[in-house]
Amino acid sequence: MKKWIVLICILPLVLVACGPFLLNPTPITIIVTATPPIPTSTPVPTIIPSPTFIPSPTPAPITVSDFEKVLLSDGYIQHPYTSPVRPGKDANSWTKENIWEQILVNKDGYVRLEILDSPSQDTREQHMERKLKVLDQIFPTEFMSELRQANDTYNKSDPKIISGNCPQSWTYNDEWNTEEAQCNASKTTIESFPVAFTLWYLQVTCPPQYSFCYYPDFPGQEFIGENAFTFYDIEINIAP
């Protein structure tokens, strides 16, 4: 009975003290903020280095001396050469198995590879290949690949005989009344080098004071009057 009396006595005091707050409660605002985590270290952006440009080395220029050294080491024999085709130009003719099939090297950079165009021999491509193997030791692989392709293209498209398209011709004032002409020329540029594929016509006349004429290099081939040869040439200008 006494406990209830105490509670009853206290309750009025509580109501008196807290009444104003219960009747007019004051709102409490709670502000919640988010704080980003503090990194343990400062991030460093990844930098991908740009590739370093290394220029391709400039190939050394090809010289007349390069030709002469290779021809000499390959067994070719050198002969002084003068031709009305290029008057006043110093040149050497280099021959190996056949004196009629030369590699002409002018001091000014004009080079001519020449073979006899005979039906009894290999095809022009096969026959000229013997000369091209010499150039393999001088020119870059890319140049030789394009040169062989152009050689093949010319010989598949060009007539096998002189077609009469001979814009340049020369006459020698010699006993044989020699005539020479450049025919069926096809000109192009390969790896900055001017290149031409041509047929050359050579004609000689047996002087009337002889009963017949012959060539020491072709035993048994005798003739009277006019006699002619056709050559297939590749011409390259290595001058800068």
Overview of this protein structure:
The radius of gyration is 48 Å and the shape is elongated. The chain has helices at 2-23, 64-73, 124-135, 141-157; strands at 77-81, 91-95, 102-106, 110-116, 168-171, 179-190, 193-205, 213-215, 218-223, 226-237. It has a domain at 64-159 and 167-237. It is built from four helices and ten strands. α3 packs antiparallel against α4 (141-157). A hairpin with a 2-residue loop joins β8 (213-215) and β9. Helices cover 25% and strands 30% of the residues. It is α+β, with helices and mostly antiparallel strands and 240 residues long.
How would you briefly describe this protein structure?
This protein has 240 residues and is an alpha+beta fold. It contains 4 helices and 10 strands; from the N terminus they run ααββββααββββββ. It has a domain at 64-159 and 167-237.
Task: Please give the structural blueprint.
Layout: H1 2-23, H2 64-73, E1 77-81, E2 91-95, E3 102-106, E4 110-116, H3 124-135, H4 141-157, E5 168-171, E6 179-190, E7 193-205, E8 213-215, E9 218-223, E10 226-237
Antiparallel strand pairs: 1-2, 2-3, 3-4, 4-10, 5-6, 6-7, 7-10, 8-9
Helix pairs in contact: 3-4
The overall pLDDT average reads 79
- Relative strand content: 25-35%
Span between termini = 131 Å
Number of distinct beta strands: 10
Radius of gyration: 48 Å
Give a short account of the largest sheet.
8 strands, antiparallel
Element order: H for helix, E for strand: HHEEEEHHEEEEEE
Choose one word for the global shape.
elongated
- Unreliable spans are 1-18, 30-36
Number of helices: 4
Structural class: alpha+beta
Helix content: 25-40%
Output the strand order for the largest sheet.
Answer: 1-2-3-4-10-7-6-5
